[in-house]
Protein backbone atom coordinates (compact mmCIF):
# COMPACT_ATOMS: atom_id res chain seq x y z
CA UNK A 1 0.00 0.00 0.00
CA UNK A 2 2.82 2.41 0.80
CA UNK A 3 4.41 1.78 -2.59
CA UNK A 4 1.09 2.42 -4.30
CA UNK A 5 0.82 5.68 -2.37
CA UNK A 6 4.24 6.73 -3.56
CA UNK A 7 3.47 5.85 -7.16
CA UNK A 8 0.25 7.86 -7.04
CA UNK A 9 2.14 10.86 -5.70
CA UNK A 10 4.77 10.62 -8.40
CA UNK A 11 2.19 10.21 -11.14
CA UNK A 12 0.65 13.49 -10.03
CA UNK A 13 4.04 15.08 -10.48
CA UNK A 14 4.50 13.53 -13.90
CA UNK A 15 1.43 15.30 -15.17
CA UNK A 16 3.59 18.41 -15.35
CA UNK A 17 5.50 17.18 -18.38
CA UNK A 18 9.05 16.48 -19.42
CA UNK A 19 12.41 17.50 -18.09
CA UNK A 20 14.51 20.55 -18.97
CA UNK A 21 17.47 21.89 -17.04
CA UNK A 22 16.59 25.56 -17.35
CA UNK A 23 15.13 26.88 -14.14
CA UNK A 24 11.41 26.57 -13.46
CA UNK A 25 10.56 24.63 -16.57
CA UNK A 26 11.67 21.44 -14.88
CA UNK A 27 9.77 18.31 -13.86
CA UNK A 28 11.27 14.96 -12.88
CA UNK A 29 11.99 12.36 -15.53
CA UNK A 30 9.51 9.50 -15.78
CA UNK A 31 10.13 7.68 -12.53
CA UNK A 32 8.18 5.08 -10.63
CA UNK A 33 9.05 5.71 -6.98
CA UNK A 34 9.84 8.58 -4.69
CA UNK A 35 13.09 6.82 -3.82
CA UNK A 36 14.18 7.40 -7.41
CA UNK A 37 12.90 10.98 -7.44
CA UNK A 38 15.08 11.78 -4.41
CA UNK A 39 17.97 9.44 -5.10
CA UNK A 40 20.45 12.30 -5.63
CA UNK A 41 20.77 16.06 -5.67
CA UNK A 42 19.91 16.52 -9.35
CA UNK A 43 16.71 14.50 -9.19
CA UNK A 44 15.69 16.26 -5.99
CA UNK A 45 16.28 19.63 -7.63
CA UNK A 46 13.97 18.59 -10.44
CA UNK A 47 11.33 17.80 -7.85
CA UNK A 48 11.91 21.18 -6.20
CA UNK A 49 11.01 22.81 -9.49
CA UNK A 50 7.72 20.92 -9.63
CA UNK A 51 6.85 22.71 -6.39
CA UNK A 52 7.27 25.95 -8.34
CA UNK A 53 5.18 24.71 -11.26
CA UNK A 54 1.77 26.00 -10.20
CA UNK A 55 3.30 29.31 -9.15
CA UNK A 56 4.71 29.76 -12.64
CA UNK A 57 1.30 29.08 -14.17
CA UNK A 58 0.05 32.15 -12.34
CA UNK A 59 1.67 34.31 -15.04
CA UNK A 60 -1.64 33.95 -16.92
CA UNK A 61 -3.31 37.14 -15.72
CA UNK A 62 -6.66 36.10 -17.20
CA UNK A 63 -6.88 33.45 -14.45
CA UNK A 64 -5.99 35.93 -11.70
CA UNK A 65 -8.98 37.38 -9.81
CA UNK A 66 -6.90 40.45 -9.01
CA UNK A 67 -6.65 41.17 -12.74
CA UNK A 68 -9.96 40.11 -14.27
CA UNK A 69 -12.41 41.16 -11.53
CA UNK A 70 -10.90 44.54 -10.63
CA UNK A 71 -12.96 46.46 -13.19
CA UNK A 72 -9.74 48.02 -14.54
CA UNK A 73 -9.91 46.06 -17.80
CA UNK A 74 -12.92 44.53 -19.53
CA UNK A 75 -13.06 42.10 -22.40
CA UNK A 76 -15.74 41.52 -25.06
CA UNK A 77 -17.27 38.08 -24.73
CA UNK A 78 -18.32 35.42 -27.24
CA UNK A 79 -15.49 36.10 -29.68
CA UNK A 80 -14.86 33.79 -32.62
CA UNK A 81 -11.20 34.79 -33.10
CA UNK A 82 -8.37 35.66 -30.70
CA UNK A 83 -10.29 33.89 -27.96
CA UNK A 84 -8.85 34.06 -24.47
CA UNK A 85 -10.47 32.05 -21.74
CA UNK A 86 -13.26 34.46 -20.85
CA UNK A 87 -14.22 32.74 -17.58
CA UNK A 88 -12.60 35.31 -15.32
CA UNK A 89 -13.67 38.41 -17.23
CA UNK A 90 -17.24 37.12 -17.43
CA UNK A 91 -17.50 36.91 -13.65
CA UNK A 92 -18.24 40.65 -13.74
CA UNK A 93 -21.29 39.78 -15.84
CA UNK A 94 -22.75 37.64 -13.06
CA UNK A 95 -21.76 34.17 -14.24
CA UNK A 96 -20.41 32.89 -10.92
CA UNK A 97 -22.24 29.96 -9.31
CA UNK A 98 -21.55 27.27 -6.72
CA UNK A 99 -22.43 24.34 -8.97
CA UNK A 100 -19.53 25.00 -11.34
CA UNK A 101 -17.46 27.96 -10.06
CA UNK A 102 -15.39 30.03 -12.44
CA UNK A 103 -11.67 30.34 -11.68
CA UNK A 104 -11.93 27.35 -9.37
CA UNK A 105 -8.51 27.30 -7.71
CA UNK A 106 -9.82 24.89 -5.06
CA UNK A 107 -10.29 22.01 -7.51
CA UNK A 108 -8.26 23.21 -10.48
CA UNK A 109 -11.19 23.77 -12.83
CA UNK A 110 -12.57 26.50 -15.08
CA UNK A 111 -9.25 28.24 -15.66
CA UNK A 112 -8.06 27.76 -12.07
CA UNK A 113 -5.06 25.73 -10.89
CA UNK A 114 -5.31 22.83 -8.43
CA UNK A 115 -3.51 24.50 -5.52
CA UNK A 116 -4.12 21.73 -2.99
CA UNK A 117 -2.20 19.40 -5.30
CA UNK A 118 0.66 21.90 -5.29
CA UNK A 119 0.64 21.97 -1.50
CA UNK A 120 0.86 18.17 -1.45
CA UNK A 121 3.93 18.36 -3.71
CA UNK A 122 5.54 20.77 -1.26
CA UNK A 123 4.84 18.38 1.61
CA UNK A 124 6.36 15.48 -0.35
CA UNK A 125 9.49 17.58 -0.90
CA UNK A 126 9.79 18.39 2.80
CA UNK A 127 9.19 14.76 3.78
CA UNK A 128 11.94 13.47 1.49
CA UNK A 129 14.55 16.24 1.55
CA UNK A 130 16.92 14.16 3.72
CA UNK A 131 17.22 11.33 1.17
CA UNK A 132 19.75 12.77 -1.35
CA UNK A 133 23.13 11.98 0.23
CA UNK A 134 25.00 14.38 -2.07
CA UNK A 135 22.92 17.45 -1.15
CA UNK A 136 24.91 20.00 0.83
CA UNK A 137 23.62 21.37 4.10
CA UNK A 138 23.51 24.90 2.71
CA UNK A 139 21.47 23.90 -0.31
CA UNK A 140 19.15 21.77 1.78
CA UNK A 141 18.39 24.71 4.07
CA UNK A 142 17.72 26.96 1.09
CA UNK A 143 15.46 24.43 -0.64
CA UNK A 144 13.48 23.82 2.53
CA UNK A 145 13.02 27.57 2.89
CA UNK A 146 11.88 27.91 -0.73
CA UNK A 147 9.35 25.12 -0.35
CA UNK A 148 8.01 26.54 2.90
CA UNK A 149 7.53 29.87 1.16
CA UNK A 150 5.71 28.21 -1.74
CA UNK A 151 3.53 26.27 0.68
CA UNK A 152 2.70 29.53 2.47
CA UNK A 153 1.94 31.35 -0.77
CA UNK A 154 -0.34 28.61 -2.05
CA UNK A 155 -2.31 28.71 1.21
CA UNK A 156 -2.40 32.52 0.97
CA UNK A 157 -3.76 32.44 -2.57
CA UNK A 158 -6.60 30.20 -1.43
CA UNK A 159 -7.25 32.31 1.68
CA UNK A 160 -7.66 35.48 -0.39
CA UNK A 161 -10.28 33.72 -2.49
CA UNK A 162 -12.08 31.51 0.00
CA UNK A 163 -11.30 32.93 3.44
CA UNK A 164 -11.00 30.07 5.97
CA UNK A 165 -9.44 27.01 4.33
CA UNK A 166 -8.18 23.57 5.36
CA UNK A 167 -4.52 23.78 6.42
CA UNK A 168 -2.55 20.98 4.79
CA UNK A 169 0.38 20.91 7.19
CA UNK A 170 1.33 17.31 6.33
CA UNK A 171 0.12 14.83 3.76
CA UNK A 172 -2.30 12.17 4.89
CA UNK A 173 -1.09 8.58 4.88
CA UNK A 174 -2.68 6.14 2.48
CA UNK A 175 -4.10 4.34 5.52
CA UNK A 176 -5.89 7.46 6.78
CA UNK A 177 -9.50 6.91 7.81
CA UNK A 178 -12.47 8.50 6.10
CA UNK A 179 -12.88 10.86 9.03
CA UNK A 180 -9.25 11.99 8.71
CA UNK A 181 -9.65 12.59 4.99
CA UNK A 182 -12.66 14.85 5.55
CA UNK A 183 -10.59 17.87 6.53
CA UNK A 184 -12.24 20.92 8.08
CA UNK A 185 -11.74 24.58 7.32
CA UNK A 186 -9.52 26.35 9.82
CA UNK A 187 -10.58 29.74 11.16
CA UNK A 188 -9.46 32.85 9.33
CA UNK A 189 -7.11 33.82 12.15
CA UNK A 190 -5.56 30.34 12.26
CA UNK A 191 -5.20 30.36 8.48
CA UNK A 192 -3.25 33.60 8.38
CA UNK A 193 -1.22 32.67 11.46
CA UNK A 194 -0.10 29.44 9.79
CA UNK A 195 0.85 31.26 6.58
CA UNK A 196 2.91 33.80 8.55
CA UNK A 197 4.61 31.04 10.55
CA UNK A 198 5.79 29.38 7.34
CA UNK A 199 7.12 32.67 6.01
CA UNK A 200 8.94 33.32 9.29
CA UNK A 201 10.54 29.88 9.07
CA UNK A 202 11.53 30.42 5.44
CA UNK A 203 12.98 33.95 5.44
CA UNK A 204 16.24 33.44 7.41
CA UNK A 205 17.51 30.72 5.06
CA UNK A 206 16.72 32.47 1.79
CA UNK A 207 19.35 34.43 -0.17
CA UNK A 208 19.06 38.21 -0.16
CA UNK A 209 19.81 38.38 -3.88
CA UNK A 210 20.06 35.88 -6.72
CA UNK A 211 23.68 35.37 -7.70
CA UNK A 212 23.19 33.33 -10.85
CA UNK A 213 20.44 35.30 -12.58
CA UNK A 214 20.68 33.31 -15.82
CA UNK A 215 19.73 30.08 -14.09
CA UNK A 216 17.89 31.18 -10.96
CA UNK A 217 16.05 34.46 -11.55
CA UNK A 218 12.57 33.98 -10.17
CA UNK A 219 13.52 31.74 -7.27
CA UNK A 220 12.44 32.99 -3.88
CA UNK A 221 14.61 35.46 -1.96
CA UNK A 222 14.45 36.96 1.51
CA UNK A 223 13.05 40.30 0.23
CA UNK A 224 10.25 38.38 -1.49
CA UNK A 225 9.38 36.44 1.65
CA UNK A 226 9.41 39.53 3.88
CA UNK A 227 7.35 41.58 1.40
CA UNK A 228 4.72 38.87 1.02
CA UNK A 229 4.57 38.53 4.80
CA UNK A 230 3.71 42.23 4.98
CA UNK A 231 1.01 41.79 2.36
CA UNK A 232 -0.42 38.73 4.15
CA UNK A 233 -0.61 40.61 7.45
CA UNK A 234 -2.19 43.66 5.78
CA UNK A 235 -4.78 41.35 4.22
CA UNK A 236 -5.52 39.76 7.60
CA UNK A 237 -5.91 43.24 9.12
CA UNK A 238 -8.23 44.52 6.39
CA UNK A 239 -12.03 44.86 6.68
CA UNK A 240 -12.84 41.70 4.71
CA UNK A 241 -11.14 39.50 7.32
CA UNK A 242 -10.90 41.65 10.45
CA UNK A 243 -14.22 41.83 12.32
CA UNK A 244 -16.35 41.60 9.15
CA UNK A 245 -20.04 41.54 10.24
CA UNK A 246 -21.03 39.92 6.92
CA UNK A 247 -19.43 36.64 7.99
CA UNK A 248 -20.03 36.61 11.74
CA UNK A 249 -22.53 33.75 11.35
CA UNK A 250 -20.21 31.52 9.26
CA UNK A 251 -19.44 28.50 11.43
CA UNK A 252 -18.25 24.96 10.85
CA UNK A 253 -20.32 21.85 11.59
CA UNK A 254 -19.16 21.90 15.22
CA UNK A 255 -20.30 25.48 15.72
CA UNK A 256 -16.83 27.06 15.61
CA UNK A 257 -16.94 30.61 14.22
CA UNK A 258 -14.66 30.80 11.18
CA UNK A 259 -14.36 34.61 11.16
CA UNK A 260 -13.39 36.81 14.13
CA UNK A 261 -16.39 38.68 15.47
CA UNK A 262 -14.41 41.68 16.76
CA UNK A 263 -12.05 44.08 15.00
CA UNK A 264 -8.42 43.79 16.18
CA UNK A 265 -6.44 47.01 15.72
CA UNK A 266 -3.18 45.27 16.64
CA UNK A 267 -3.25 43.43 13.33
CA UNK A 268 -2.37 46.68 11.59
CA UNK A 269 0.64 47.14 13.88
CA UNK A 270 1.86 43.69 12.89
CA UNK A 271 1.40 44.61 9.23
CA UNK A 272 3.23 47.93 9.65
CA UNK A 273 6.16 46.29 11.44
CA UNK A 274 6.41 43.62 8.74
CA UNK A 275 6.27 46.18 5.92
CA UNK A 276 9.01 48.27 7.54
CA UNK A 277 11.20 45.18 7.94
CA UNK A 278 10.67 44.30 4.28
CA UNK A 279 11.52 47.85 3.17
CA UNK A 280 14.70 47.82 5.27
CA UNK A 281 15.78 44.53 3.70
CA UNK A 282 14.98 45.66 0.15
CA UNK A 283 16.83 48.95 0.47
CA UNK A 284 19.80 47.25 2.12
CA UNK A 285 19.97 44.99 -0.94
CA UNK A 286 20.20 48.03 -3.21
CA UNK A 287 16.60 48.39 -4.34
CA UNK A 288 15.20 51.82 -5.14
CA UNK A 289 12.43 53.29 -7.26
CA UNK A 290 13.11 52.86 -10.96
CA UNK A 291 14.06 55.86 -13.12
CA UNK A 292 14.27 55.61 -16.90
CA UNK A 293 17.73 56.05 -18.37
CA UNK A 294 17.50 56.82 -22.11
CA UNK A 295 19.46 54.53 -24.42
CA UNK A 296 21.97 55.96 -26.87
CA UNK A 297 19.45 56.32 -29.70
CA UNK A 298 17.26 58.70 -27.65
CA UNK A 299 19.34 61.86 -27.67
CA UNK A 300 16.66 64.27 -26.46
CA UNK A 301 13.95 63.38 -23.96
CA UNK A 302 11.80 66.01 -22.23
CA UNK A 303 11.12 65.59 -18.53
CA UNK A 304 7.43 64.89 -19.17
CA UNK A 305 8.19 61.84 -21.32
CA UNK A 306 10.96 60.72 -18.98
CA UNK A 307 8.38 60.53 -16.18
CA UNK A 308 6.02 58.55 -18.40
CA UNK A 309 8.75 56.05 -19.30
CA UNK A 310 9.91 55.77 -15.69
CA UNK A 311 6.39 54.75 -14.70
CA UNK A 312 5.78 52.49 -17.70
CA UNK A 313 9.18 50.81 -17.53
CA UNK A 314 8.89 50.20 -13.79
CA UNK A 315 6.62 47.40 -15.00
CA UNK A 316 8.00 46.49 -18.44
CA UNK A 317 11.77 46.82 -17.89
CA UNK A 318 13.85 43.65 -17.83
CA UNK A 319 14.02 42.24 -14.32
CA UNK A 320 17.81 42.46 -14.04
CA UNK A 321 17.67 46.18 -14.96
CA UNK A 322 14.67 47.08 -12.79
CA UNK A 323 15.86 48.46 -9.48
CA UNK A 324 12.45 48.31 -7.78
CA UNK A 325 11.22 44.89 -8.88
CA UNK A 326 11.01 42.68 -5.80
CA UNK A 327 9.23 39.73 -7.38
CA UNK A 328 7.82 38.64 -10.72
CA UNK A 329 6.93 35.30 -12.23
CA UNK A 330 9.45 33.75 -14.57
CA UNK A 331 7.26 33.31 -17.69
CA UNK A 332 6.85 36.53 -19.66
CA UNK A 333 3.59 38.47 -19.83
CA UNK A 334 1.79 37.10 -22.91
CA UNK A 335 -0.85 39.77 -23.55
CA UNK A 336 1.00 42.83 -24.91
CA UNK A 337 -0.83 42.41 -28.19
CA UNK A 338 -4.17 42.72 -26.41
CA UNK A 339 -3.08 46.03 -24.87
CA UNK A 340 -1.71 47.70 -28.04
CA UNK A 341 -3.83 49.80 -30.42
CA UNK A 342 -3.29 49.86 -34.18
CA UNK A 343 -1.09 52.84 -35.03
CA UNK A 344 -0.07 52.26 -38.66
CA UNK A 345 -1.42 51.29 -42.09
CA UNK A 346 0.32 47.92 -41.93
CA UNK A 347 -1.14 47.21 -38.52
CA UNK A 348 -4.60 47.61 -40.05
CA UNK A 349 -3.69 45.31 -42.92
CA UNK A 350 -2.35 42.78 -40.38
CA UNK A 351 -5.29 43.33 -38.08
CA UNK A 352 -5.64 39.70 -37.05
CA UNK A 353 -2.03 39.47 -35.86
CA UNK A 354 -2.90 41.65 -32.87
CA UNK A 355 -6.34 41.79 -31.29
CA UNK A 356 -6.15 45.02 -29.20
CA UNK A 357 -9.08 43.76 -27.12
CA UNK A 358 -8.14 44.80 -23.57
CA UNK A 359 -10.46 47.76 -22.93
CA UNK A 360 -10.16 50.17 -20.00
CA UNK A 361 -13.42 51.61 -18.63
CA UNK A 362 -13.99 55.34 -18.43
CA UNK A 363 -14.07 55.12 -14.62
CA UNK A 364 -10.49 53.84 -14.56
CA UNK A 365 -9.32 56.84 -16.60
CA UNK A 366 -11.16 59.24 -14.30
CA UNK A 367 -9.51 57.64 -11.24
CA UNK A 368 -6.14 59.25 -12.11
CA UNK A 369 -5.27 62.61 -10.55
CA UNK A 370 -4.90 66.00 -12.14
CA UNK A 371 -1.38 67.32 -12.61
CA UNK A 372 -1.83 68.96 -9.19
CA UNK A 373 -1.96 65.52 -7.61
CA UNK A 374 -5.57 65.43 -6.40
CA UNK A 375 -8.70 63.69 -7.80
CA UNK A 376 -10.35 65.42 -10.75
CA UNK A 377 -13.56 66.00 -8.79
CA UNK A 378 -11.61 67.68 -5.96
CA UNK A 379 -9.21 69.93 -7.89
CA UNK A 380 -10.34 73.55 -7.58
CA UNK A 381 -8.58 74.44 -10.85
CA UNK A 382 -10.01 71.57 -12.95
CA UNK A 383 -13.18 72.04 -15.00
CA UNK A 384 -14.86 68.87 -13.76
CA UNK A 385 -18.34 69.86 -14.94
CA UNK A 386 -17.01 70.57 -18.44
CA UNK A 387 -14.69 67.58 -18.66
CA UNK A 388 -16.56 66.02 -21.61
CA UNK A 389 -16.25 69.09 -23.82
CA UNK A 390 -13.84 69.07 -26.77
CA UNK A 391 -10.37 70.61 -26.75
CA UNK A 392 -7.57 70.65 -29.33
CA UNK A 393 -4.05 69.51 -28.56
CA UNK A 394 -1.68 72.46 -28.11
CA UNK A 395 2.05 73.05 -27.75
CA UNK A 396 1.98 72.87 -23.96
CA UNK A 397 0.58 69.32 -24.03
CA UNK A 398 2.40 68.11 -27.18
CA UNK A 399 4.24 65.28 -25.41
CA UNK A 400 0.98 63.87 -24.06
CA UNK A 401 -1.57 64.78 -26.76
CA UNK A 402 -1.05 65.24 -30.49
CA UNK A 403 -0.95 68.90 -31.53
CA UNK A 404 -3.97 69.95 -33.56
CA UNK A 405 -5.92 66.80 -32.66
CA UNK A 406 -9.34 67.19 -31.07
CA UNK A 407 -9.94 65.11 -27.98
CA UNK A 408 -11.90 65.40 -24.76
CA UNK A 409 -11.01 68.10 -22.26
CA UNK A 410 -10.44 65.72 -19.35
CA UNK A 411 -7.41 64.27 -21.17
CA UNK A 412 -5.56 67.53 -20.48
CA UNK A 413 -3.72 68.59 -17.32
CA UNK A 414 -3.58 65.13 -15.84
CA UNK A 415 -0.81 63.43 -13.89
CA UNK A 416 2.00 61.60 -15.77
CA UNK A 417 0.77 58.23 -14.52
CA UNK A 418 -2.38 58.59 -16.60
CA UNK A 419 -0.34 59.11 -19.75
CA UNK A 420 1.93 56.20 -18.82
CA UNK A 421 -0.99 53.87 -18.12
CA UNK A 422 -3.45 54.68 -20.89
CA UNK A 423 -3.58 54.77 -24.65
CA UNK A 424 -6.49 56.95 -25.81
CA UNK A 425 -7.79 58.85 -28.81
CA UNK A 426 -5.33 61.66 -29.47
CA UNK A 427 -2.83 60.41 -26.90
CA UNK A 428 0.89 60.22 -27.73
CA UNK A 429 2.25 56.66 -27.97
CA UNK A 430 5.99 57.08 -27.55
CA UNK A 431 7.81 54.09 -29.03
CA UNK A 432 6.41 51.45 -31.38
CA UNK A 433 9.61 51.96 -33.36
CA UNK A 434 9.65 55.78 -33.17
CA UNK A 435 11.67 57.71 -30.59
CA UNK A 436 12.18 60.98 -32.49
CA UNK A 437 10.26 63.80 -30.79
CA UNK A 438 9.32 65.33 -34.15
CA UNK A 439 7.75 62.09 -35.39
CA UNK A 440 5.82 60.31 -32.64
CA UNK A 441 2.79 58.10 -32.98
CA UNK A 442 -0.54 59.06 -31.52
CA UNK A 443 -3.69 56.97 -31.21
CA UNK A 444 -6.59 57.60 -33.59
CA UNK A 445 -9.61 55.67 -32.38
CA UNK A 446 -12.73 57.47 -33.59
CA UNK A 447 -14.96 55.54 -35.95
CA UNK A 448 -14.36 52.61 -38.28
CA UNK A 449 -12.05 54.55 -40.62
CA UNK A 450 -9.45 55.29 -37.94
CA UNK A 451 -6.47 53.00 -37.42
CA UNK A 452 -7.42 51.93 -33.89
CA UNK A 453 -11.17 52.21 -34.31
CA UNK A 454 -13.65 49.31 -34.52
CA UNK A 455 -13.32 46.99 -37.51
CA UNK A 456 -15.22 43.94 -36.28
CA UNK A 457 -16.13 42.38 -32.95
CA UNK A 458 -12.91 40.33 -32.87
CA UNK A 459 -10.65 43.39 -32.99
CA UNK A 460 -12.82 45.87 -31.13
CA UNK A 461 -11.75 47.90 -28.14
CA UNK A 462 -15.17 48.44 -26.61
CA UNK A 463 -14.30 51.53 -24.52
CA UNK A 464 -11.70 53.48 -26.50
CA UNK A 465 -8.92 53.07 -23.91
CA UNK A 466 -5.95 50.67 -23.92
CA UNK A 467 -3.77 49.62 -20.92
CA UNK A 468 -0.59 51.14 -22.34
CA UNK A 469 1.34 50.40 -19.15
CA UNK A 470 1.28 46.69 -20.06
CA UNK A 471 3.22 47.30 -23.29
CA UNK A 472 6.98 47.70 -23.53
CA UNK A 473 7.62 50.95 -25.38
CA UNK A 474 10.04 49.10 -27.69
CA UNK A 475 7.41 46.57 -28.81
CA UNK A 476 6.26 47.25 -32.38
CA UNK A 477 2.87 46.64 -33.97
CA UNK A 478 3.24 47.30 -37.69
CA UNK A 479 3.93 44.47 -40.15
CA UNK A 480 2.85 41.91 -37.55
CA UNK A 481 3.63 42.25 -33.86
CA UNK A 482 7.17 42.09 -32.51
CA UNK A 483 7.24 42.36 -28.75
CA UNK A 484 9.98 43.03 -26.24
CA UNK A 485 9.06 40.65 -23.47
CA UNK A 486 8.90 41.36 -19.75
CA UNK A 487 7.60 39.75 -16.55
CA UNK A 488 4.56 41.22 -14.83
CA UNK A 489 5.51 42.22 -11.26
CA UNK A 490 3.93 40.59 -8.25
CA UNK A 491 5.59 43.06 -5.89
CA UNK A 492 7.30 46.38 -6.56
CA UNK A 493 9.00 48.64 -4.05
CA UNK A 494 6.49 51.42 -4.72
CA UNK A 495 3.67 49.07 -3.76
CA UNK A 496 5.53 48.11 -0.59
CA UNK A 497 5.98 51.79 0.33
CA UNK A 498 2.24 52.37 -0.03
CA UNK A 499 1.44 49.21 1.92
CA UNK A 500 3.56 50.53 4.77
CA UNK A 501 1.84 53.92 4.59
CA UNK A 502 -1.55 52.20 4.69
CA UNK A 503 -0.70 50.07 7.71
CA UNK A 504 0.83 53.05 9.55
CA UNK A 505 -2.24 55.19 8.92
CA UNK A 506 -4.56 52.46 10.18
CA UNK A 507 -2.37 52.07 13.25
CA UNK A 508 -1.69 55.69 14.18
CA UNK A 509 -3.46 58.01 11.76
CA UNK A 510 -1.89 60.44 9.25
CA UNK A 511 1.56 60.91 10.77
CA UNK A 512 4.50 62.52 9.02
CA UNK A 513 5.94 59.10 8.25
CA UNK A 514 2.74 58.14 6.43
CA UNK A 515 3.12 61.18 4.19
CA UNK A 516 6.82 60.48 3.68
CA UNK A 517 6.24 57.06 2.17
CA UNK A 518 3.34 58.23 0.02
CA UNK A 519 5.49 61.09 -1.23
CA UNK A 520 8.31 58.75 -2.25
CA UNK A 521 5.92 57.34 -4.86
CA UNK A 522 4.35 60.67 -5.80
CA UNK A 523 7.74 62.34 -6.34
CA UNK A 524 8.70 59.74 -8.96
CA UNK A 525 5.33 60.43 -10.62
CA UNK A 526 6.11 64.16 -10.78
CA UNK A 527 3.48 65.20 -8.23
CA UNK A 528 3.64 67.53 -5.23
CA UNK A 529 3.64 65.97 -1.78
CA UNK A 530 0.31 64.70 -0.50
CA UNK A 531 -0.11 67.38 2.19
CA UNK A 532 0.93 70.19 -0.15
CA UNK A 533 -1.37 68.98 -2.92
CA UNK A 534 -4.48 68.74 -0.76
CA UNK A 535 -3.75 71.95 1.12
CA UNK A 536 -3.15 73.95 -2.05
CA UNK A 537 -5.50 72.48 -4.66
CA UNK A 538 -8.25 70.35 -3.11
CA UNK A 539 -11.74 71.58 -2.29
CA UNK A 540 -11.42 69.25 0.72
CA UNK A 541 -8.10 70.38 2.23
CA UNK A 542 -8.77 68.73 5.59
CA UNK A 543 -8.80 65.28 4.03
CA UNK A 544 -5.11 64.70 4.80
CA UNK A 545 -5.60 65.44 8.49
CA UNK A 546 -7.91 62.53 9.38
CA UNK A 547 -7.42 58.78 9.35
CA UNK A 548 -10.52 58.26 7.19
CA UNK A 549 -9.45 60.94 4.72
CA UNK A 550 -5.89 59.64 4.47
CA UNK A 551 -7.25 56.11 4.05
CA UNK A 552 -9.19 57.25 0.98
CA UNK A 553 -6.08 58.93 -0.40
CA UNK A 554 -3.87 55.88 0.15
CA UNK A 555 -6.42 53.54 -1.40
CA UNK A 556 -6.66 55.71 -4.51
CA UNK A 557 -2.88 56.11 -4.58
CA UNK A 558 -2.43 52.30 -4.59
CA UNK A 559 -5.05 51.85 -7.29
CA UNK A 560 -3.30 54.43 -9.47
CA UNK A 561 0.28 53.31 -8.86
CA UNK A 562 -0.46 49.58 -9.27
CA UNK A 563 -3.10 49.89 -11.98
CA UNK A 564 -3.30 46.87 -14.35
CA UNK A 565 -0.78 44.88 -12.26
CA UNK A 566 -3.29 42.36 -10.84
CA UNK A 567 -3.15 44.14 -7.47
CA UNK A 568 -6.20 46.39 -7.33
CA UNK A 569 -8.67 43.53 -7.57
CA UNK A 570 -7.19 41.98 -4.43
CA UNK A 571 -6.95 45.34 -2.66
CA UNK A 572 -10.56 46.28 -3.42
CA UNK A 573 -11.67 42.92 -2.04
CA UNK A 574 -9.76 43.15 1.23
CA UNK A 575 -10.95 46.75 1.68
CA UNK A 576 -14.56 45.70 0.95
CA UNK A 577 -14.71 48.43 -1.71
CA UNK A 578 -15.10 46.35 -4.87
CA UNK A 579 -18.89 46.38 -4.64
CA UNK A 580 -18.85 50.19 -4.64
CA UNK A 581 -16.50 50.33 -7.63
CA UNK A 582 -18.63 47.90 -9.64
CA UNK A 583 -21.98 49.39 -8.65
CA UNK A 584 -21.78 51.81 -11.57
CA UNK A 585 -22.26 50.66 -15.18
CA UNK A 586 -19.07 49.89 -17.11
CA UNK A 587 -18.76 52.74 -19.59
CA UNK A 588 -16.59 53.82 -22.51
CA UNK A 589 -16.83 56.21 -25.44
CA UNK A 590 -19.17 55.89 -28.41
CA UNK A 591 -16.45 54.18 -30.43
CA UNK A 592 -18.29 53.87 -33.78
CA UNK A 593 -18.67 57.64 -34.11
CA UNK A 594 -16.05 59.60 -36.08
CA UNK A 595 -16.84 63.17 -35.00
CA UNK A 596 -15.42 64.23 -31.61
CA UNK A 597 -18.71 65.62 -30.30
CA UNK A 598 -20.42 62.30 -31.02
CA UNK A 599 -17.53 60.03 -30.04
CA UNK A 600 -17.05 61.60 -26.62
CA UNK A 601 -20.42 60.56 -25.25
CA UNK A 602 -20.24 58.07 -22.37
CA UNK A 603 -21.84 54.77 -23.40
CA UNK A 604 -22.64 51.82 -21.16
CA UNK A 605 -20.78 48.69 -22.29
CA UNK A 606 -22.44 46.43 -19.75
CA UNK A 607 -23.71 46.54 -16.20
CA UNK A 608 -21.58 44.54 -13.80
CA UNK A 609 -23.08 42.09 -11.31
CA UNK A 610 -21.40 42.05 -7.91
CA UNK A 611 -22.88 41.58 -4.45
CA UNK A 612 -21.68 40.84 -0.94
CA UNK A 613 -21.48 37.12 -1.66
CA UNK A 614 -18.94 37.72 -4.45
CA UNK A 615 -16.22 38.87 -2.08
CA UNK A 616 -15.42 35.21 -1.39
CA UNK A 617 -15.50 32.36 -3.87
CA UNK A 618 -18.03 29.56 -3.47
CA UNK A 619 -16.79 26.07 -2.74
CA UNK A 620 -18.11 23.72 -5.40
CA UNK A 621 -21.34 22.01 -4.35
CA UNK A 622 -19.91 18.58 -5.15
CA UNK A 623 -17.03 19.15 -2.73
CA UNK A 624 -19.54 19.74 0.07
CA UNK A 625 -21.17 16.41 -0.75
CA UNK A 626 -17.89 14.51 -0.84
CA UNK A 627 -16.59 16.14 2.34
CA UNK A 628 -19.43 16.55 4.81
CA UNK A 629 -17.16 18.50 7.19
CA UNK A 630 -16.91 21.43 4.79
CA UNK A 631 -19.31 24.35 5.03
CA UNK A 632 -20.19 26.72 2.21
CA UNK A 633 -19.23 30.40 2.28
CA UNK A 634 -22.02 32.76 3.30
CA UNK A 635 -24.69 33.79 0.77
CA UNK A 636 -23.93 30.94 -1.65
Folded structure, characterized:
By secondary structure, the chain is mainly alpha-helical. Among the domains are: 2-227 and 618-626, Serine Threonine Protein Phosphatase 5, Tetratricopeptide repeat (Alpha Horseshoe); 303-325 and 332-489, no CATH class. Helix content is 38%, strand content 6%. The protein has 24 helices and 12 strands. The strands form 6 sheets. It has a two-stranded antiparallel sheet. A hairpin with a 1-residue loop joins strand 8 and strand 9 (480-482). Helix 6 runs antiparallel to helix 7 (137-162), helix 12 packs antiparallel against helix 17 and helix 17 runs antiparallel to helix 20 (547-561). The two termini are 39 Å apart. Mean pLDDT is 94; it is low at 1-31.
CATH class wording of the domain at 2-227 and 618-626: Mainly Alpha
Number of DSSP strand runs: 12
> Hey, roughly how much beta strand do the residues contain?
5-15%
Largest sheet: 2 strands, antiparallel
* Count of alpha/pi helices: 24
Structural class: mainly alpha
Distance between the termini: 39 Å
- CATH level 3 topology of the domain at 2-227 and 618-626: Serine Threonine Protein Phosphatase 5, Tetratricopeptide repeat
Uncertain regions spanning at least 5 consecutive residues: 1-31
Computed Rg: 25 Å
Outline: globular
What is the helix fraction of residues, given as a range? 25-40%
Q: What's the average pLDDT?
A: 94
The CATH architecture term of the domain at 2-227 and 618-626 is: Alpha Horseshoe
The oligomeric state of the chains shown is single chain
Domain SusD-like N-terminal: 102-215
Subcellular location: Cell outer membrane
Signal peptide: 1-24
Protein name: RagB/SusD family nutrient uptake outer membrane protein
